[in-house]
Amino acid sequence: MFPAIGLVVLIAMVFGGFAITGGALGPVLHALPHEMLIIGGAAAGALIIGNSGAELKAMGGGLGKVFKGPRWKKQDFLDVIFLVSKLMKMLRTEGPIALEPHVEDPKSSAVFAEYPRLQADHTLVNLIADTLRLVVVSSGTLDVHAVEDVMDNAIKTHHHEVESPHTTLSSLADALPALGIVAAVLGVVKTMGSIDQPPAVLGGMIGSALVGTFLGVLLAYGIVSPLASRLKQVIDADAAIYGVVKQIIIASLHGHPQPLVIEAARSGIKHKNQPGFAEVFDGLRGR
């Protein structure tokens, strides 16, 4: 919602301000499609050269995230605390044998099925199931710090993968001003080929060439770079839920009392989505 509003404000203020101060929009709008063809085509070609098909597809998905916003809401963070706490309680009270079917086949698990939004995220489910499978297989003899290292590595690998669209957009933003200069230089070359024309015609041609520089800078710093920054915010916000999973599992394996486990889980959640301590504790007591 806000990115769309921002784009409208950006375009209105830039072109509206230019018109209000006496600028003629006609020549700019006349040159815009041609300059956009050169800059946009060059940008598309550069993206194809520098990225695989999977990365380009991921960038498209990343742009969707910018407009949708973070996936996880406050209830999802509350649910993941309940889900992982319930599994850890099962491990503690009923033993590895009782937990094993749930981590071996999460799709058929009645515990995971209570939280369909969480169950739909394969990365989240795999992080929980794969970690607890190690605990089950080792019959609880694993060093907790080793388990934490494994989880850190899994989270880091996933985060690096989902950050690739942000990296791609940032690289594109860096390239756009230079591509704008390319378009402008071509416009100047065209102008020099018509040097025998009247000053009014030459002035229009030079103005059209400068639109290329203007467009490259506007796209880079007004649109693509802000989109990349917002995408990074969304990625980081969604990654917080994996940290909650890690904190509950590690704190539980250390044998910490439940209030400390809850606080360890809550501490990594931003205030916007952070459930109250009593809200979590009362919810766990009723489960």
Give a short summary of the structure.
This protein is mainly alpha-helical and 287 residues long. The protein is built from 13 helices and no strands.
Q: Can you put this structure into words, describing what you see?
A:
The chain is mainly α and 287 residues long. It has one domain (34-287). Helix content is 82%, strand content 0%. It has 13 helices and no strands. It is elongated and about 90 Å long. The two termini are 37 Å apart.
Give the number of DSSP strands.
0
What is the strand content?
under 5%
Helical amount: over 70%
H/E series, N to C? HHHHHHHHHHHHH
Q: Average pLDDT, to the nearest integer?
A: 90
Radius of gyration: 27 Å
Give the uncertain stretches in residue-range form: none
Shape: elongated
Count of individual helical segments: 13
State the separation between the terminal residues, measured CA to CA. 37 Å
Number of individual domains: 1
- Label the structural class: mainly alpha
Biggest sheet architecture: none
List strands and helices in order, with pairings.
Blueprint: H1 2-20, H2 25-50, H3 53-68, H4 74-94, H5 96-104, H6 110-113, H7 116-119, H8 122-137, H9 144-162, H10 164-192, H11 199-253, H12 258-266, H13 277-285
Features:
287 residues, mainly alpha, 82% helix
